[in-house]
Amino acid sequence: MGDSATLTSVLESQASLLQEAALALPHQFSQCTYSLGHIRQAVYLCLTCVRASPSSPPRGICSACSIACHTDHEQLELFPKRNFRCDCPTRALAHPCTLHTTLEEPNEQNTYGRNFEGVFCRCGRPYDAEKERETMIQCLACEDWFHESCLNLRERPSSREPTPAAEPARDDGASDASSSGLPPPLISADDYDALVCSDCVRKIDAVRRVAGTPGTLMVVRSSSNEPWRIIGMDGEREATQVDIESKAPNGTENVTQTAVNGGKRERSPTKGEEPVAKRARVSPEAESSSPCLAPPQDPRVVGLLSTLDKTSTADSEPPREGKTSDRYLGSGDVFLTEGWRERWCRCKKCLPSLQAHPFLLEEEETYEPPEDPDSGLSLEELGMRALQRLPRERAIDGIMAFNAMRDDLMKHLRPFAERGEEVKEADIRAFFDARIEAIRSKRQ
Q: Alpha-carbon distance 352 to 83, whole Å?
């Protein structure tokens, strides 16, 4: 606001500020989440507290404590983390918690990855919101953040220093737009629903088994001279007949199922190909179990993941042996398209891996503070609501004091109206400074 302003412009500015505040902080931040236990919630890293205790491991705080307890501290938003309990009221942080005043023991069950050191992505670059211009995407499993260039979605910027600053990523882990000033990504945010980084792909059998199959996108190439390309797109789907032997009611029939994939699955042996007497005996339970419906995987993807298992870094390229058409190069990351939770095979071989990672089967609930009923209300409405909560005598005293101040303000402004002069900010400040001085004089 300038040195002078009209009443209309002041009211418009106030309404705009109220709207911005309601959008930025629509929730109540009056309760620390420590009492809720280990939940998935937005986590913040207090850099001020980290620097104050360099010998102690970094800790995280909840959104309420980030506002109520660490207001004037430098913080870094880590976004949602699962199974996390707020560290603010524990002995692990020297700064006292103003919301949960009981001092608690450190949270031993919390997991503190490299994000809690301000480091993100496999490249290990420290995150600086003022400089970072590359979009970053969150892994569904480990919840680390990765640059699009490190996922081979675009070529890396010509210079890695200074660190190029991310546009705010969506809380679902997918970027809204391409990085500022950089080419568009190979896979846009509309093409996939979730990312699973290479390390997690190779640790979770259920994901590893379907990597590169339809709906499970990967970015690969056959040689370093070729451009990156996508495998697993819906356009690559090809219906192939796959014989899956199952026990029919009469015990003699085979059931043929159609598998959807870019490659072909080997046919299961039939009665004509192998005598019944030579077949291995299996228990009735095994015979009656559901067959594995995971789509057949490209051998080149299997080879890529196996090679990455042996390399020291996830984005190292495999040794250049054999024909380029017989191998894939890449970092091994997987992009799951919409509806991926419904596509899992739930046979006895696949289900245990899924159950060990519940977020693969059901969408997780992320805690959000309760909505603030006062959000978006004007100062007048907030004042009336506060007045209604006061005892009757105090409310009457408050109304009388407000009316007296109003009358004095009108007397202060009347000469300006009579002279046709514009009321400036300094004139208003002079009125309230005089009232404050008068109150101080009475108290002395």
A: 20
Q: Give every CB contact of residue 82 below 8 A, 6+ residues apart in sequence.
A: 39, 40, 143, 359, 364
Profile the chain (444 residues) by mean pLDDT over runs of 10 residues: 57 63 62 95 93 85 93 92 96 93 94 91 83 87 94 72 42 46 84 96 95 95 91 59 36 37 37 44 51 90 93 50 70 96 93 95 90 62 69 80 84 87 85 85 77
For 61, 98, 296, the CA distances from 66, given in Å and listed in that order, are 6, 11, 48
Paired with 126 in beta bridges are 119
Which structure tokens are listed for 70? 């660490």
Whether this prediction's pTM lies above 0.85 is answered by no
Whether the Cβ atoms of residue 257 and residue 294 lie closer than 8 Å to each other = no
- Count of CA atoms in the C-beta half-sphere (13 A) of 30: 7
